[in-house]
Amino acid sequence: MPYDALVLVSFGGPERPEDVIPFLENVTRGRGVPPERLAAVAEHYYSFGGVSPINQQNRELMAAIEADFSANELPLPVYWGNRNWHPLLTDTVAEMKADGVKRALAFVTSAYGGYSSCRQYLEDFAKARAAVGEGAPVIDKLRHFADHPGFVSPHIDAVRAALDTLDPARRETTRLVFTAHSIPNSMAMTAGPPPVDPPGRYVAQLRETAALVAAAAAPDLSWDLVWQSRSGPPSVPWLEPDVNDHLAALADTGVTSVVVSPIGFVSDHLEVIWDLDNEAAATAKERGLDFVRAATPGTDPRFVAMVRELVLERMEPHPDRLRLGTLPLWDTCPADCCTPPARRPSS
Ligand SMILES: CC1=C(CCC(=O)O)c2cc3nc(cc4[nH]c(cc5[nH]c(cc1n2)c(C)c5CCC(=O)O)c(CCC(=O)O)c4C)C(CCC(=O)O)=C3C
Ligand SMILES: [Fe+2]
User: Fold this and answer.
1) Which residues' Cβ are closer than 6 Å to ligand 1?
2) Which residues are recorded as binding Fe-coproporphyrin III (predicted)?
């Protein structure tokens, strides 16, 4: 077997109030995020006792992957490391080296292309390996899974289940609203291998996934793809419309009910439970919209099995790709894919 471990790599989040600010500093170092935005986001974390749910969700995902590997006789140990908070990827890579791991596959908890969602993770691998030095394992990232049935099917079922809670008499004025993390327009325009076709790989993949989920879950309903959790200085343009503005606009055109499906994410982390369950839900209420947020894959068995399928696929010489979409796909990103944004001096 050419690989001897799997490493789960994620964003990371604080689990104690005193870790919130150091975590936010790690996330935003050199990114030009204004202090007012940071202070506001710190409050979102404090309102949950300073505990982001993301680490516990990754512990559960890791346990589910281990159980699935073992049930399917795939003898790979599973590790977990984060970009921004403990367990930090560098410490994990050091542990992997100490355990004698030579060559690992990485499953990143982000389905799509783009700098923040893909290339920055490759940079995280390189930084961690450089810090560990001689003998650090090689780390190969598994492919984008935006259109993998193990990711799309749980989203389809979640949208169906959400729709089932809404008033069927209002079906004709019900709308599906898919959301993903906003990114700067400039980052969207460089997402993918050059020359990047507009609107960039991140947006193109999200549109394709949204279309797949909508077509299967509710072909009779209209849908939109909108953006959430905008960061950065107000002067820098990010993908729009924001989900809150969009909900208000929908209410003005006679929509009565919305299912909000966070297809940009794999679990109910803080961006989901604050920005949607709290903020977007409040916007909907203010505008008199019936609102229901669809679930994320989390530890859905199909999503967990997908990780194994991606690993096995990667070990095949001529892999048969399990996928529902048609956008170009590759195992190894070209070196000039998703160019990093210009760095801003840290404040
Ligand atoms: C594309 C994308 C994903 C999806 C792909 C992936 O999952 O990787 C994602 C996920 C997440 N983003 C998260 C949290 C944050 N993101 C921030 C800031 C930023 N995100 C960006 C993009 C993305 N972010 C960008 C371009 C910035 C500006 C700074 C920069 O240029 O890098 C900030 C700073 C404060 C602020 O919001 O301004 C925080 C706290 C959490 C953890 C939630 C938890 O704790 O449960 C998760 C999963
Ligand atoms: Fe983010």
Assistant:
1) 11, 13, 24, 27-28, 31, 33, 37, 41, 52-54, 109-110, 114, 116-117, 181, 183, 229, 231-232, 264, 269-271
2) 52, 121
Same domain, 120 and 16: yes
Residue closest by Cα to atom 36 of ligand 1: 231
| Domain span including residue 77 | 5-145+300-315
Cis peptide before 195 (omega within 30 of 0): yes
Whether residue 181 is annotated as binding a ligand: the answer is yes
Ligand with minimal distance to 10 CA: 1
Predicted confidence (pLDDT) per residue in 92-115, tens digit: 999 999 999 999 999 999 999 999
Domain shared by 81 and 153, yes or no: no
Residue located nearest, by CA, to atom 31 of ligand 1: 31
pTM, 2 dp: 0.97
Q: What's the pLDDT tens digit per position in 288-314?
A: 999 999 999 999 999 999 999 999 999
Q: Looking at the structure, do residues 201 and 169 belong to the same domain, yes or no?
A: yes
- Determine whether the annotation assigns residue 269 to a binding site: no
